[in-house]
Amino acid sequence: MAPNDSAETTGKATGTVVGRRKAARYIVPVAVAGVAAATIGLVPALADSGDPELPKISAQELIEKIAASDEQQLSGTLKISTDLGIPSLGGLAGSFAPGGAGTDGGGSAAPEDKLMELASGTHTLRVAADGPDKQRLSILGNAAEYSLIHNKGEVWAYDSKSGEAYHAAADAEQQKQKKEHRAPAGVPTTPKEFAEQALAAAGDTTSVTVDGTSRVAGRDAYQLLIKPKQTGSTVASVRVAVDAANGVPLKFTLSANGGGKAVVDAGFTKVDFSRPDASSFSFTPPKGAKVTEADDLKDAAEQQGGEGKAPEGLAELGGLKGLEGLDGSQGLNVIGEGWTSVAQIKTPGGSGLPTGGSQGSGDIPAEAQGFLDALGDKVTGKFGSGTVFKTRLVNALLTDDGTVYVGAVTKDALVQAANGAK
Known about the structure:
globular; 6-stranded antiparallel β-sheet; 12-stranded mixed β-sheet; 10 helices; 2 domains; outer membrane lipoprotein receptor (LolB), chain A
């Protein structure tokens, strides 16, 4: 293992002004909460044995190397998995979305339906990209494949198992975002997208060090280790394996304070930075395929009283905003900073969980109340009383007066935030 500079990096780290500005986008740990909300993860990347000897590099230099990486052409295979300690969410979105799975409208090939399947379990993905206008993502299953293709503003998705296809055209704003290389809201699916959300400016709340080297997908990499300095976070560490040659994150691992296997882990098992074949981004629906247009789903949502927002497709994948970006929204306040940020959300009507009783008294049957009680822990404090619902990473407190407190923090930290809230 090559020795590396493990000096901590803060918001006052040295370096060029340009380097600091570019690196600042990459080190905000509060975005980890956004990653957890998406509940996507990648399993370890089957790294090669043996740690390569590489030149020394400081944490600040490695962060700037990530910020400067501009590899727009690649193809590869990833393993993906997550372990939040909750049941599988596969198919959940399609069960309730207008035109989704289980409805007369069909449309189960829509991205919002299929990407939910990545929220739990283990999956294998193939990815390809050729600049901001061409990307492809394929989820490999048992004798089946789901593919999502973006080619110059047009999005196609196809599920070989169901024989259904989905088609959408990106609007002008989406095209503008891609041209400007902005990170739109959506679900991250590569180690770099995960890393870009977890590595952002958090100043003195974060320790950032270089922790040795590794080999990932046959390539030499530095290990960037990010840890919260604050107590009360459910995050133990974030580890990013950074390609020593081009600065591209090859593997992302998020570990929980409770121990056990990684909660979120993103890694390439194979990667190639040459231009993919143009045929990778071409798609024509097979004969007999049922094609659902995004506009049809939008019309269905409007008819059912929804917001009429169609799935955004592959062009919009990557880039969840952290809780701090939501501060000031109607009914929402952010308490604290960095890794221990807690979102306070006042629900309309100011009511908490329904209460039950025997022989028909109360809002719900006693049996149902018992089920709800089993899902969470009852807590009390200066704020009153409520119930804490827990995963391995993100926890939420719902008070009896209808206020929600949520963050990648412990139960005690949630209660403390509620007690001090205004």
